[in-house]
Amino acid sequence: MSELTKTRAAEILQNLRDRYVLVLGDVMLDEFVWGDVTRISPEAPVPVVDVRRESIHLGGAANVLANLVALGARGAVVGVVGNDAAGRKLQTGLRDLGVHDQYLLVDESRPSTTKTRIIAHSQLVVRADRESRNPVTGKLEEKIVTCLKEALTQADAFVVSDYDKGVVTPGILREILPVAYEQAPVLVDPKLRNFNSYRPATLVTPNHLEALRMSDTEDHSDDGSHHAAKVIREKLGCDAVLITRGDRGMMLLEGDGQPVYVETAAREVYDVTGAGDTVIATLAGALATGATMFEAATLANHAAGIVVGKVGTATATAAELLDSFHR
Question: Do strands 250-254 and 240-244 pair parallel, antiparallel, or not at all (unpaired)?
Fold first, then answer.
């Protein structure tokens, strides 16, 4: 299988500029509190963080869309927020990206999913989560389906970003995936709770531990990853499975062929926050242009190598991605 060249990567990224990618999933607000630690609390054996600054970022499915925009694509995200300050920040964040937020639905009964990370000296000290994992039901579920059917008419690729926070339900997947699959590549970042509902799909992208759980195996070797991918593909009937394996790169299995191993492109790993969002966003963008599965996987691997070298929720730009091939 021929290597992805910088010239071909540039061609894919250029073609991506007129592609539209639709994302369904759990949108989140990622809050970061940055500071220094110089002492231990007298109240308990925990560090005292002297706060220096704070920042907020789009997280979850919203971060998938942010990654697509950073690469030059157009798109939208269908998700749910609460009627709260975090929800309004998410709406503002999407508008700041130049993206319409009309598909960000408000549920009065739940909080906006918020992850607050306290970081000192570039190290995560603690994370606090505010969320509801109850599945959306009734009229809200119907509204999500309506939004998806409307937005799918212009989609060149469709991403399901399932963080198991309740927005992705079996009912929505049953309604939408057959429609989407007839029109464009369908990519799923899965969770175990909805595993049997991810059909039909073009590509399913579990991480290594998720793949082992989904295939009921504990073999962490290359052969174990291959076995897990085969089991997942057989159970779901999807076209391909890509397993992300951290510092061991990725493993791609297309159809009944042999697995392809893509070595990690990361030079230094500072923070893996949001790396999975970057991977599926880049995969979706590349497949939307007609790139091969191997080309998409290689491009996604380079993008992931960039974002894990940054602290906090991050994106990779098209320029950074091309520069990574030069290196």
Answer: antiparallel
Round to whole Å and give the CA distance between 262 and 78. 31
* Displacement of CA 183 from its chain's centroid (Å): 21
| Annotation says 277 is catalytic | yes
Query: Of 111, 112, 139, whose CA–CA distance to 30 is shortest?
Result: 112
Residue 230 to residue 253: CA distance in whole angstroms: 8
Domain 6-326 homologous superfamily, CATH: Ribokinase (3.40.1190.20)
Give this prediction's pTM. 0.93
Q: Nearest to residue 242, comparing CAs of 274, 273, 284?
A: 284
Reference 238, options 283, 196, 285, 278; nearest CA is: 196
Instruction: Give the C-alpha separation, 181 to 219, whole Å.
Output: 32
pLDDT (tens digit, 9 = 90+) per residue, 78-118? 999 999 999 999 999 999 999 988 999 999 999 999 999 99
Encoded tokens for 309: 């070298």
3-state secondary structure of 201: coil
> What are 88's two structure tokens?
């309004």
Element (H, E) at 140: helix 138-152
* Structural domain boundaries in the chain: 6-326
pLDDT tens digits, 253-271:
998 889 998 887 655 555 5
Secondary structure in 3-state letters for 233-276: HHHHCCCEEEEECHHHCEEEEECCCCCEEECCCCCCCCCCCCHH
291 CB-contact burial (10 Å; exposed 0-12 / middle 13-18 / buried 19+): buried
Identified catalytic residue from 256, 271, 277, 323: 277
Q: Crossing angle, helix 138-152 and helix 170-183, to 10 degrees?
A: 10
Closest of 70, 71, 67, 76 to residue 24, by C-alpha: 76
